[in-house]
Write a structure and sequence with these properties.
CATH topology of the largest domain: Immunoglobulin-like
Strand content: 35-45%
Radius of gyration: 28 Å
Order of helices and strands: EEEEEEEHEHEEEHEEEEEEEEEEEEEEEE
Helix content: under 10%
CATH class of the largest domain: Mainly Beta
Largest sheet: 5 strands, mixed
Number of helices: 3
Number of strands: 27
Number of domains: 2
């Protein structure tokens, strides 16, 4: 592959910032029916230099230029051949974006996340161009190679200080050599087997003397032939004490102890055989800062509605919408497939006797993600565990509007 590299390390000019480019692949296999078919990260990294500078740079992959090239590996030998060469660009020209080193995080990041931010690297997520995708053959191996580039628009300092329209000499050189290699396979990526679902919690698992809670689940379509369902829960406090309780509602998050099941026939040759239910793989993507610092929450202030107070006989309600395919992988939720949904049971992460007003001085610690259980007080100060058993089950049929997933 060295013959295709245009710029190498020894071509660097003195008195220019040393930069390196890396390609980080997500998978060594490209599946022809996956969407997106292949994505990876382009990382531009500053090497051993702390002086502030800026540059204009675009990671856009254009098959008509030679910054990135596509190489096809011969099945019979170690030779590679460049393919996908285009004389004219099929893409609209993009003005390179201005980037600065050190690379500062966005202003909305919390202080702890800013401290952990990698200021020496710019990461950009991209994919294989469509024109290259059309050339790929199942069973063959390919390499995307960075050949190197000179960046003429740059300067020391910040863009606000010196950014102009004239190139600077000498240019910054980003040497070639970074590459990623992948093999093309026909079809879709094999499903990751769904983890075994814990059995629904039985009412017999409640702790004697602890508050008794139950959850009732209901659902309804948002409209005729709708792609969305309205899910509603009602959590009721039954006693046995006559005192009120205040609790953290984490246990009832739709991202937690709710499961989607699809109806399957164990013997496909005998439709009359008794059907079974299999847990579906959920494909929700969460955009969460898991490394954010812990937060201190005052229970009585309840600014985000995370806490609730109930007296015996009262209920707390919550609702959300859900795709009518159950947010499942397409193979698990084809049109006409019967699905069921259930709260499988959970234990309150934090609760205490009294109303929220009684807890004006109570402060608990929540992990920075906002999706995890209360971190402190640990073990809820050893109060009895409040176990909420599994709810009732709701069922529906995946509507025909999801046919488009299989076009």
């Amino acid at each position: 592959m060295d013959t295709y590299i245009r710029w190498k390390e020894d071509h660097r000019q003195p008195d220019t910032p040393p930069l390196a480019l890396e390609l980080v692949e997500s998978s060594p296999t490209l599946w022809t029916e996956d969407e997106p078919t292949q994505s990876f990260t382009i990382a531009l990294r500053r090497v051993l230099n702390n002086q502030c500078f800026w540059l204009r740079w675009s990671p856009f992959i254009d098959p008509s230029n030679e910054e990135f090239v596509l190489l096809s590996h011969s099945p019979e030998s170690s030779k590679v051949e460049r393919i996908g060469i285009e004389k004219n660009s099929r893409y609209s020209p993009l003005l390179p974006s201005v980037h600065q080193f050190p690379n500062e995080p966005s202003s909305f990041y919390v202080e702890e996340a800013k401290k952990n931010w990698d200021r020496s690297t710019i990461n950009v997520r991209t994919g294989v161009p469509d024109t290259w995708i059309k050339l790929l053959e199942p069973g063959r191996t390919y390499t995307i190679l960075w050949t190197g580039k000179e960046i003429p628009y740059w300067d020391w300092g910040t863009p606000q200080q010196k950014m102009g329209t004239d190139p600077k000499w000498p240019p910054i050189l980003v040497p070639g050599g970074a590459h990623l290699t992948f093999t093309v396979q026909e079809g879709r990526r094999p499903h990751i087997p769904s983890p075994p679902t814990p059995p629904p919690i039985d009412p017999s698992e409640r702790v004697p003397g602890a508050p008794v809670l139950s959850l009732q689940l209901s659902c309804s379509p948002t409209g005729p032939l709708s792609e969305r369902l309205n899910m509603s829960i009602k959590v009721t406090y039954h006693g046995p004490s006559s005192d009120p309780i205040t609790f953290h509602a984490w246990a009832f998050s739709p991202l937690g102890s709710f499961s989607v099941y699809r109806r399957v026939c164990p013997d496909q040759s005998s439709p009359e055989s008794e059907p079974k239910w299999k847990t579906c793989i959920i494909h929700q993507s969460l955009h969460v800062f898991w490394d954010n610092p812990d937060r201190q929450l005052n229970v009585a202030e309840n600014e985000e509605g995370r806490f609730a107070t109930l007296f015996p006989g009262e209920s707390w309600s919550h609702s959300w919408s859900l795709d009518a395919d159950g947010d499942c992988e397409p193979e698990d939720a084809r049109p006409g497939q019967q699905l069921r949904y259930q709260f499988t049971g959970e234990t309150l992460d934090w609760w205490d006797w009294g109303t929220m007003e009684d807890h004006a001085q109570t402060v608990v610690t929540l992990p920075g993600s906002g999706l995890e259980p209360i971190k402190h007080p640990k073990n809820n100060d050893n109060r009895p565990k409040v176990v909420i058993p599994a709810s009732n089950i709701v069922e529906w049929i995946v509507p025909r509007c999801f046919d488009r997933q299989f076009d």
